[in-house]
Amino acid sequence: MAVLARQFLSYVGVSLAALAVHYALLATLVETGRADPVPAALAGYLAGAVVSYGLNRRLTYASARPHAEATWRFGVVAAIGFGLTWLIMAGLTRGFGLPYLAAQALATGVVVFWNFLGHRVWTFAGRPVPVLSGEVPGVR
């Protein structure tokens, strides 16, 4: 349990860096009138994902999974998080009229847990060790 807690704290630290990029782009796009809050949130999400991949691979999960495998897995988990962000942002800003930063904070709260678990159990998880039939690992 302590390992999981340390890993989650590392993930939160990395997420703060990714969130800084995400929120900076979101606010810049909305406040300069270049984008509506929903597409601006999605652009921020993508920019934050780039930061998140590199830092989480190295610091949080210390993954040895090859980039060729990890990047597409990261993309699948991130795409689901992207969809969740869209649904939550659209529902809260357009459906309920919530200010975009409050809506983004709620979306972030949901998506951070999805991403942590998805990356922990699938994206960066250790690859299973193949066992030849009839052999027991560690026994000769």
Tell me what you see in this structure.
This protein is an all-alpha fold and 140 residues long. The protein has helices spanning 2-31, 37-60, 67-95, 100-123. The model has no long low-confidence stretch (mean pLDDT 90). The protein has one domain.
Nearest-angstrom radius of gyration?
18 Å
Q: What is the H/E order?
A: HHHH
The domain tally reads 1
β-strand amount? under 5%
Structure summarized in a few sentences:
This protein is an all-alpha fold and 140 residues long. It is built from 4 helices and no strands.
Q: Mind sketching the topology for me?
A:
Blueprint: H1 2-31, H2 37-60, H3 67-95, H4 100-123
Helix pairs in contact: 1-2, 2-3, 3-4
List keywords for this structure.
mainly alpha, 76% helix, 4 helices, 140 residues
